[in-house]
Amino acid sequence: GYPRLHSGPSPNRSPAGMPTVVMKFGGTSVGSVERLESVADRVVHAREAGNGVIVVVSAMGTTTDDLLAMAADITDLPDPRELDMLLSVGERISCALAAMAIHDLGHTAIWLTGSQAGVVTDTEHTRAKVLEIRPGRIRSALEQDAIVLVAGFQGVSTAHEVTTLGRGGSDMTAVVLAAALGADCEIYTDVDGVYTADPRLVAGARKLTAV
Q1: CA–CA separation, 157 vs 120, rounded Å?
Q2: Among residues 182, 180, 125, 115, which one has the least CA distance to residue 150?
Q3: How far is the C-alpha of 158 from the C-alpha of 156, rounded, in Å?
Q4: Average model confidence (pLDDT) for the chain?
């Protein structure tokens, strides 16, 4: 089934009455300190344009792959719970650094783990499904004019354990938060359009002019 999404006060409006946007940045977009600073600039521009802003970030660059490789060096069969605890670290690092960059630009920001942001999942580790969004803490931060950063790819299970949503899960985080808050959703990447395949992997990938 579909996750239960607690609706916001009105479509595409923050609790303070501003239009609200969820901005999601992938791993390559936050892959270095310089890129994180560029993301911070874009986020601050959106806030100064009069939007309530929620930012969902992936782990920096190859962080998730690096963590998986470290786990594989330890054991061929990592415990799923411990693996989720490990993998959730990458997005938390991105969030913390991005929040620092936003503070440095003179804006208030708060970053939240998936659990703190109210992303509730089932108990299936490493490939959890979102069951419900409880965005009360996000709404409260928006009311205080803060930019809210949320660690993508993760949530908390009904058994109160950290879970991850599977590869690409940060996109899911952004979409379900936008739906719960009646916000627009913008997903940023490092390619200049929608392609027939990943242009970094497929040499003949073509950019589509329309979808």
Answers
A1: 6
A2: 115
A3: 7
A4: 93
Give the integer Cα–Cα distance in Å for 62 and 55: 20
Give the gyration radius of the chain's Cα atoms.
17
Give the pLDDT of residue 12.
60
> CA 134 → CA 91, 96, 99, 131, distances in Å?
20, 22, 22, 10
Q: Which is it for strands 154-157 and 119-121: parallel, antiparallel or unpaired?
A: parallel
**Residues 67-105: tens digit of each pLDDT:** 999 999 999 999 999 999 999 999 999 999 999 999 999
Taking the alpha carbons of 187, 192, 195, 200 in that order, is the dihedral positive or negative? negative
The C-alpha atoms of residue 71 and residue 65 are separated, in whole angstroms, by 10
87, 164 Cβ separation under 8 angstroms:
yes
Nearest to 168 by CA among 68, 40, 53, 24: 24
In DSSP terms, 55 is beta-bridged to 23, 149
Q: What is the pTM of this model?
A: 0.88
Measured in residues, the chain has a length of 211
Q: Kind of pairing, strands 119-121 and 109-112? A: unpaired
